[in-house]
Amino acid sequence: MPRPISIMDSKKRDAQIEVASPKKRKTTQWLSPDGQAIQHNRLIKGTENTTYQALVEKAGSPEDLSRALIDGDPELDLAQVGRRMTRTSRVYLGPQGNVLYVARILKVVFSAEGEEVSREDFVDVEATVGDELPPIPWTGRLMPVDAVIRKFAFVRKLQLRHVNGLTFDFLYEMAKTLQDAGKLMYVGAGAKGKQPLIFQTNGSPFRGFLEGRVEGEAYKLVLHLSNLEIKRVSAPEGAA
Fold first, then answer.
1. Going by C-beta distance under 8 Å and a sequence separation of 6 or more, which residues neighbour residue 166?
2. Neighbours of 222 (CB within 10 A)
3. Which of 3, 9, 2 is nearest to 210 (CA)?
4. Closest by alpha carbon to 13, among 173, 120, 126?
5. Do 149 and 203 lie in a common domain?
6. Distance CA 182, CA 171 (A)
7. pLDDT given for residue 238 in this prediction
8. Of 84, 108, 134, which residue sits at a domain end?
9. Considering the domain boundaries, does residue 114 fall inside one?
10. Strand, helix or coil for residue 15
11. Is 75 contained in some domain?
12. Do 65 and 154 share a domain, yes or no?
């Protein structure tokens, strides 16, 4: 669904527009042997009684479980496995598999070696982009396309769309300015565009790169989003 945001142009004018994810074209279609379209369904794979821990506890030991798996199929709950899932709700479970009705959410940071570095209460990270938040400023930081695609990995893109005739002219002019420059413009949140773009509470922080194209009376403004910077790996000392 399109969502409203505010954005600013090079003349320091701001307007409220819409952003939406471009529709993906279906490149393949799965068909049954008789030519019918295949429907995808979510099926139950296992239950709490068929987990490894539950099976070991019931068998007595991993060795006894191995023999039970050879002699039969204790890991299959034939009354449940394969049933089609309909409406479901997410619940949190404790170490013993019990349902947690009140959970304390923590932020745990691990090192590259997998060791816990810190543990603290999770604090909500508020969105920086929205219809009631300050507009995304025009930074004027133009970057060559080939330099951007070699330095950042794009993980998502949003299309900026007008909501009326005035915002059409507003976005068309922005797209033409960027096309004439032949570059992408780095954008961010905050007064100077230095904060990350966060579109919802606790959402992923992104860097933004605005691309503009025009053709006749039509325009296209695409906001490319990246949360991954590509860095060259240095060779270890002594390597050839």
1. 15
2. 17
3. 9
4. 173
5. yes
6. 17
7. 61
8. 84
9. no
10. strand
11. yes
12. no
pLDDT tens, position by position, 99-119? 888 878 888 999 988 999 999
Which H, E and C letters describe 47-95, residue by residue?
CHHHCHHHHHHHHCCHHHHHHHHHHCCCCCCCCCCCCECCCCCCCEECC
17 forms beta bridges with 5
d(CA 118, CA 134): 33
Assess whether 135 and 56 both reside in one domain: no
Mean pLDDT of the chain, nearest integer: 90
Query: 78 and 134: one domain?
Result: no
Q: Would residue 116 count as lying in a domain?
A: no
Q: Rounded to an integer, what distance in angstroms lies between the CA atom of residue 16 and that of residue 9? A: 12
| Measured distance CA(68)–CA(95) in Å, rounded | 25
CATH number (domain holding residue 188)? 2.40.290
Of the segments 13-17, 85-89, 101-105, which one has the largest average pLDDT value?
13-17
For 153: left if phi > 0, alpha if psi spans -120 to 50, otherwise beta; the answer is beta
Q: Into how many domains does the chain fold?
A: 2
Domain-embedded: residue 117: no
Same domain, 133 and 222: yes
CA–centroid distance for 224 within its chain: 13
Provide the residue range defining the domain that includes 173.
3-24+126-229
* pLDDT score, position 235: 60
Q: How far apart are CA 148 and CA 228, in angstroms?
A: 12
Pair 134, 200: CB distance under 8 Å: no
Check whether residue 166 and residue 225 sit in a common domain. yes
**What is the C-alpha separation between 91 and 165, in angstroms, rounded?**
47
